[in-house]
Amino acid sequence: MKKLLSLAIVALFSVSAMAQQVDLRKKINVSGSAETEVTPDIIYISISLKEYLKDGNSKKKVEITTLENELFKAVQNAGIAKENLTITNLSSYTAVVQKKKNPDYLASKQYRLKVTDLNKWNAIIDELDPKGIAYTNIDSYDYSKIESLKKELKIKALLAAKEKATYLVQALGDKLGSAIDIQEINNESFPQPMYRANVMMMKAESADMAGAPPAEIDFKKIKLSYQMNVVFEIKGF
């Protein structure tokens, strides 16, 4: 009997605790959004340099060090910090071993350059030996003020949700209370760079390409879109 009484008391307290946890507040769930598009102002370019033979003569090889020094000088002349040029392919250092095995081996190195102005890139490419460039390409791009822009859009989306909730609740003769829950939905879009005519900026494997202008780059803008789902409490007047 005592056990049954104890179980009944425990069950009673459990039901009471569950009743206390039920949220009986009147609520409204709304969403607000904000979006914008920005033009990229940070561009990452990959560059591949490769040794070549002058007139096909193995005794007249243009060494990778010569091509590399040309690249360093062109970057410096363009007013770009040396930290913005990095080597991306460390395997190029195996060239010493390969050359010992095969004197005709043509070494190559790959680099990554960060620029904020494509006009500077055009000036750099004009100073380089076109026959020593295997290819150049745009890897990716970014926007320098992206973080502050994200913050601004999130706040705008949140305020848009509050504005919507306010006029909806007021239409029912009630008053909007404080936010109970906030959820963020991220819809960022970073499209890859597109090339008109689907060509690289420059490919100098053929002598016919020497002096050819870079292909036009068709940048797609970075689109930032945020949605905030917010639950507000509804209060009566």
From TrEMBL:
Keywords: Signal. One of its GO terms (biological process) is DNA damage response. Residues 1-19 form the signal peptide. It holds the Pfam family SIMPL. InterPro entries: 26kDa_periplasmic_antigen, SIMPL/DUF541. PANTHER family: PERIPLASMIC IMMUNOGENIC PROTEIN, SLR1258 PROTEIN. This is DUF541 domain-containing protein. It comes from Pedobacter hiemivivus. The lineage of its organism: Bacteria, Pseudomonadati, Bacteroidota, Sphingobacteriia, Sphingobacteriales.
